[in-house]
Structure formats: C-alpha cells, structure tokens
From TrEMBL:
<protein>
    <submittedName>
        <fullName>SMP-30/gluconolactonase/LRE family protein</fullName>
    </submittedName>
</protein>
<feature type="repeat" description="NHL">
    <location>
        <begin position="378"/>
        <end position="404"/>
    </location>
</feature>
<feature type="repeat" description="NHL">
    <location>
        <begin position="502"/>
        <end position="543"/>
    </location>
</feature>
<dbReference type="InterPro" id="IPR011042">
    <property type="entry name" value="6-blade_b-propeller_TolB-like"/>
</dbReference>
<feature type="repeat" description="NHL">
    <location>
        <begin position="555"/>
        <end position="593"/>
    </location>
</feature>
<feature type="repeat" description="NHL">
    <location>
        <begin position="329"/>
        <end position="365"/>
    </location>
</feature>
<feature type="signal peptide">
    <location>
        <begin position="1"/>
        <end position="32"/>
    </location>
</feature>
<feature type="repeat" description="NHL">
    <location>
        <begin position="644"/>
        <end position="687"/>
    </location>
</feature>
<dbReference type="InterPro" id="IPR001258">
    <property type="entry name" value="NHL_repeat"/>
</dbReference>
<feature type="repeat" description="NHL">
    <location>
        <begin position="691"/>
        <end position="734"/>
    </location>
</feature>
<dbReference type="GO" id="GO:0008270">
    <property type="term" value="F:zinc ion binding"/>
</dbReference>
<feature type="repeat" description="NHL">
    <location>
        <begin position="465"/>
        <end position="498"/>
    </location>
</feature>
<feature type="repeat" description="NHL">
    <location>
        <begin position="601"/>
        <end position="640"/>
    </location>
</feature>
<feature type="repeat" description="NHL">
    <location>
        <begin position="235"/>
        <end position="271"/>
    </location>
</feature>
<feature type="repeat" description="NHL">
    <location>
        <begin position="408"/>
        <end position="451"/>
    </location>
</feature>
<feature type="repeat" description="NHL">
    <location>
        <begin position="282"/>
        <end position="318"/>
    </location>
</feature>
<keyword id="KW-0677">Repeat</keyword>
Length: 734
C-alpha cells in the first residue's frame, strides 16, 4: 500500500518545573494590577496569565469552568514545583522559564497521566499500523511516528483548527468507543497527551460536535463512588473478528464484514488489510444488536440486517448513516430476526426474513415490493449472472443455484482446514465471481473462486500471548500480578500489574498441569495458584510448576470429590481452601495440602442452600461470601459454614441480580459482584448494603458482555473478566 506518512516535527519545549527558588506565588504581584474573573458557578477566580490564556484559547468551550484556585503543585515525575490551576477539562501550568514565549502557559499532560498504564497494553493505545483509505486525500489522514498513532478526518480537522500540537500534544490512542465516567454516556473518543476528544453526535452541525473530555474534573473532583476505566487487555484489535456472520464486497473489491458479536461493521481491502469500522451495541441509528446480514449496491451503499433489532439499516461506503426500515413483526416490511440480505443489479434488496420463513423484496429506499415463503435461509448472495449462492450453515457447505433456482454445484464440509467450514453464515460474491464466506465458528473469512477452490483466508482466534478465548477466572497476587483462567484456550496466563504478559502454562488434557474446563482461580498468601478444573482442583507455584491435585468423580461424589466443573475457589488467611462444588450444590473446605475439613449446603432456596453456585470469596474475617447464582442472591457464612446473612433477588434494580457469577472482596471487606446477566458490576459494604454499580451491555471500554469473574488488588483496583468480549478490563475506584 502506497502511503505518505505525515511527519510532525516540532521543537516544543518540554515541561520543566519551576525552580525551587520561586517559593513565592508568581501571581501575587499580578493579581492587583491584572484582570481577574470570578465564576459563581464553581466559586473560583481566574487571574493574570491564566485568564489571558483561557480567554485567548477557547475559554469555556475548550477548558470549562475553574474548579480550583491557582496553587503550587509538585510534578510526580520530576519532583519539581510549579503553579497550576485546574479547570473542568484541563490543568493550566505556569512555566516562568519560558517567559516571553507562547509556552509560558501550557496545558498539563492529563491524557498521558490518566492513560499511562494503557500505553503499553491496551489495544487502542499501543502503537498502531498506518490506516489509509484511498477514497480520501492523504491530507486528511495523518500518522505520527512519534507515538505510532493515526489522526484522521473530523478529529484531525478539530486538532488543526484549535491549537494542534501546542495545545493537545500528539495522539496516544486510536479512535475507539469509551464510556465517559462523568456522564456514563458512550462516545467515540481519541486520547492525546494533553486532552481527550469526544464526538458528540447529539450536537451534529453545531460548533459543539467535538468536545474535550472533562479530564480536570475527572482527576480533581470525581463523583463520589465513581469507577474509572483504566485499560483492557485481550479483546479485539482492528482486524480481529468475533463470530462474523456475513460479508459483502463492493465494486472495488473492498470487503465489508458483519462482525456480529462485536456489534459493528468492519471494512477491509481485497487483500484483507483493515480500512475502517463503525457501530457498537445499541438500538440507535448506526448502532447494532448482533448484525448478521450485509450487502453493498452498485453505488457503494451498505445495507445491514440488524438482526436482533429486527430492522435494516443503510449507510454510505464510509459508514455514514442514511436510513433504516422495519421493526419486529410478521407484516409486510416487518421482520423477525432477519439474517440474509442481497442486492441485485437493479438495486433491489432481498431480505432473508429468517424466523418468518420468507424472502422479502424492497427497492433501494426500503419500499416493500413483494414476498414469498421459503425455508430458514441464513445468507444469500447474487453474482453478476444472477446466480444465487446460499450459505447452508447446518451442513457446513455452500450451494449454488441459477436465477431460476436450478441446482448447479456445492462445496465444503465440516472442519477447520482450508475450504472447510464450521457453521458458515455469511456469503458474498465479487465482480470476478470469487466467493467470500464468513466461516463463523472458525473466526475467519475464506475466499474461494466460483467453483469452490480455496484462495486465501484472514482473521484469527485469540490464541496469542495476551489474548483470550472466553476468560472465566481472574485473581491478583500481593505484588499486583494477575492470573487469568483462559478457559477455551485451556491455559493460565500471568500478567504484571500494568497488563504486560509474563508467562503462561497449560493445554488441553486430563494429566497433571493440563485442563479440560478450567474456571475458578485463587491464590494463597505464598503465591501458590489453585485452579478449579473439570472435576478436580490443581495447585501450582507462581511460575506455573505443578504441585498437586485432588478430587475426581462425576456424579454421586463423596467428601473431597467434585461433580463436573466446580465453579469457584477462594483461600483464607490461614491457607484454607474453599471450593464451590457447583453441581453438588455445596461448599467444601480443605487445608492447604488438600486435606478435606468440612462441607455445607444442599440444593434449594432456603438459607444455606444453593442453586447453580457461582464464585466464592473470603474476607479478612474469614467469612465466606457465595454467589448463589441460580437463586439470584448473595449468601454469607462464617468459616465453619454457619449462615450469617443474605441479600438480593431476581431483577435489574440496585441490589438485584440476574445470574451473579463472580464475587470479590477488598481490604475493607466491601463485596463486588459480577451481575452477569445484567452485564454490570455491583458493590456492597460487608453487610450487603448497596454502594454503587457500573457497566452495561456492549463492547466499548467500561461495558461488558456476560462478565464472569472479578478480582481486587491491594490498592483497590478492580479487574474484570469480560468473558464474551474476550478481554480483561481494569478500573480504579474513586
């Protein structure tokens, strides 16, 4: 790919602290002579050079209201002091060593300060490849070698017009969706050394469609009890796919993928090089709920079968929303989980209205034309000769028919080799007759010629170091290192406190150190690692060396044995081990050598009874706290199994649960519950009093899809196994 990398070189003077000899406030002599402005909204005054800078560089729109007065602060990196004043969106700093230059007042490096840990581990913050869309000028698509990030289109325009490098610094992330911790709203964002840009679609066609994040307020005056996203590891990078169900190809050979379980559309060139993406989970314009169909017309417009929203959405070739039609039902123009979609040479749209068992035909504007009954079609594509290609998902094959329905040929079988499929559910044909198949359960795209001969593939499962395939367990040691039960990859991965990969161990099998269905994970005070596998407990040292195991049985198990898949495991201060023996509906207690001590519980809804046990945790008083998932409640016991209290019921209100699976306690004995079915975390005090909650359904930073496990380190940082997003997220409590 030909591309010119835009290099920005600037002799920006670095941040140097005020000399220690300046013990007096440099503003003091200026306050009487220079202008000052009092802001009753926050009760603070801005004066002198800070007021001049504030007025001349965007004022309220750019910086917000002052939230402190001018004050001396220490730079945590250099130990030097300088004068600062905090605003809702920024921190201004006075640099007398730059007196007489435009750098005498600088905006602080708040973006870099807030995302320092993310820079080396988070997929959105680590150095990225150059992105270039040849449909647009290179002048609106820049890449910065200094930080290894792209800055494009609307964000680039705002950066250029509002101070550029001097005011905002270099980009330190790619564009991505994230939750604003101050408002709880989801925005497309990009982080810079000194700022965070937010795209506010509700302000479209106004001067406020891009705003700076409230970084000053987030750091200096956070909401009480708020939780701030810090980073994620794992998840999906630009060209990672999660159960892609459909593909479509335009006239230039660009490939559009309905990245179903990521609730977005991705665009690649004909060689599989990433170009663009759009969408996230939701039901607004441009949002999706498991899109499973996609097609492109001759003008490059993209039509998406937004399956679980029971509608069709139309976009231009760059992902700009144009129109939508349909809702849930069986009338003309209504749909029930539509999955298949295709466009013919005249621009007519054919919809596989899957669970209504029919095909509906529309013009390019969504006007209903006709319908006919058929079977449960999951994907359809039409080639230039009018031949129809059908993804026969249940038989793991592709079938080809002429325009009158006459059978022509078929290819494919079950498997993971080239030309084989595992539930293919999407298909498209380019203008050379090549066929692109969304090989969904193999997490890849395959390209074949018109006769079914394999040509190439791309996409991958998350098997590399630092990636996950359905992580279900997480635990943190005393040094802040954390261990992840990477369930479907049959291994344990270990990371340092900043998310950097350290080591891994395990693979599929029933021998020592091998795993079949690992789920729970716990650590003792000596750093030993305990794993709840299919029907046994395995013990390892901190480096992954196998030490011992116990358990074993499937049904009708005795003391010290487990039925299939014990789901939770925890260790108390004395090294005793507690296991949630899920399918026996009981808790079992062992000493550190695996010797059976006691058990309690049975199936039911009474106090001390359980249904579908989830995770288990032990607080500093050796009380045992259990996620009683099937009963949608939390139960608390002493170390001998004596019932103490319970809280919760089914629902989505505060202190209600929908399948609580994960549980953890901090060093104040506060209880954190992974409310899996509600896709959120809830926090309670040690007596079960509700304190706060965060999260919602989705794949942006701070959202979850079926999270299952949680752990809290000694500093109160919270780590969540965001299972169906295949990632770990870290949060900081305020």
């Amino acid at each position: 790919m030909e591309n010119r990398i835009k290099l920005i070189r600037a002799g920006l003077i670095g941040l140097v602290a005020l000399a220690m000899s300046l013990f007096f406030n440099p503003f003091a002599p200026a306050l009487a002579a220079e202008a000052n402005q009092y802001f009753p909204e926050t009760g603070h005054t801005v004066s002198g050079k800070f007021l001049d800078y504030w007025n001349n560089n965007g004022g309220l729109t750019t910086y917000g209201y002052p939230i402190t007065d001018a004050q001396m602060e220490t730079d945590p990196e250099t130990g030097k002091q300088f004068l600062t004043q905090w605003f809702e969106r920024h921190r201004l700093e006075l640099h007398p060593e730059n007196a007489g230059t435009k750098y005498e007042v600088l905006a602080g490096l708040l973006g870099k300060d807030l995302r320092r840990e993310a820079l080396t581990v988070d997929p959105d913050f680590v150095k990225a490849d150059v992105l270039y869309n040849n449909a647009y000028s290179k002048e609106v698509q820049w890449y910065f070698l200094e930080t290894g990030h792209n800055l494009r289109f609307h964000f680039l325009e705002y950066w250029q017009q509002n101070g550029g490098l001097e005011r905002f610094g270099y980009p330190i992330s790619e564009e991505h969706s994230e939750i604003d911790p101050e408002t709880g709203n989801v925005y497309v964002m990009q982080w810079f050394e000194r700022a965070r840009f937010e795209s506010h679609l509700e302000n479209a066609n106004t001067p406020y469609d891009i705003l700076l994040g409230l970084l000053g307020k987030q750091i200096k005056t956070p909401k009480a009890g708020s939780v701030e996203f810090m980073w994620e590891i794992g998840g999906n990078n630009f060209n990672d796919l999660k159960k892609p169900r459909r593909v479509a190809v335009d006239g230039q050979g660009n490939v559009f993928v309905a990245d179903t379980d990521n609730h977005r559309i991705q665009k690649f060139d004909r060689n599989g090089t990433f170009l663009a993406r759009w969408g996230n989970g939701g039901n607004g314009d441009g949002q999706f709920n498991s899109p499973q169909g996609i097609a492109v017309d001759s003008q490059g417009n993209v039509y998406v079968a937004d399956t679980n929203n029971h509608r069709i959405q139309k976009f231009d070739k760059n992902g700009q929303f144009l129109a939508r039609w349909g809702n849930g039902g069986n009338g003309d123009g209504q749909f029930w989980f539509p999955k298949g979609i295709a466009v013919d040479g005249q621009g007519n749209i054919f919809i596989g209205d899957t669970y209504n068992g029919r095909i509906q035909k529309f013009d390019g504007n969504g006007n209903f034309l006709l319908k006919w009954d058929c079977g449960e079609i999951t994907a359809i594509a039409v080639d230039g000769q009018g031949n129809l290609h059908v993804a026969d998902s249940g038989n793991h094959r592709i079938q080809k028919f002429d325009k009158n329905g006459k059978f022509l040929t078929k290819w494919g079988s079950y498997g993971g080799e080239n030309g084989q499929f595992n539930s293919p559910t999407g298909i498209a044909v380019d203008d050379q007759g090549n066929v692109y198949v969304a090989d969904s359960w193999n997490d890849r795209i395959q390209k074949l010629d018109g006769n079914g001969n394999f040509l190439l593939k791309w996409g991958r499962q998350a098997i590399a170091d630092g990636q996950f395939n359905y992580p279900e367990g997480i635990a943190v040691d005393g040094q802040g290192n954390f261990y992840v039960a990477d369930t479907w990859n049959k291994r344990i991965q270990k990371f340092d406190k900043n998310g950097r990969f350290l080591t891994k161990w395990g693979s599929f099998g029933k021998g020592d150190g091998l795993f079949v269905n690992l789920r729970g994970i716990a650590l003792d005070g000596q750093g030993n690692v305990y794993i709840a596998d299919e029907n046994n407990i395995q013990k390892f040292d901190e480096s992954g060396k196998f030490l011992l195991k116990w358990g074993g049985c499937y049904y009708g198990c005795g003391d010290g044995q487990f039925a299939l898949n014990p789901s939770g495991i925890a260790v108390d201060g004395q090294g005793n081990l507690y296991v949630a023996d899920t399918n026996n509906h009981r808790i079992q207690k062992f000493d550190k050598n695996g010797r059976f001590l006691t058990n309690w519980g049975s199936q039911g809804e009474g106090d001390g009874q359980f249904s579908d046990l989830g995770a288990i945790a032990v607080n500093g008083q050796s009380n045992v706290i259990v996620a009683d998932s099937g009963n949608n409640r939390i139960q608390k016991f002493d170390s001998s199994g004596r019932f103490l209290t319970k809280w919760g019921s089914w629902g989505s209100e505060d202190a209600q649960f929908n399948q609580p699976n994960g549980i953890a306690v901090d060093n104040q004995s506060n209880v954190f519950v992974v409310d899996s079915g509600n896709h959120r975390i809830q926090k309670f005090d040690k007596n079960g009093k509700f304190l706060t909650k965060w999260g919602s359904y989705g794949n942006v930073d701070g959202q979850f899809i079926d999270p299952t496990e949680i752990s809290v380190d000694g500093q109160g940082n919270v780590f969540v196994a965001d299972t169906n997003n295949n990632r770990i997220q870290k949060f900081r409590q305020r």
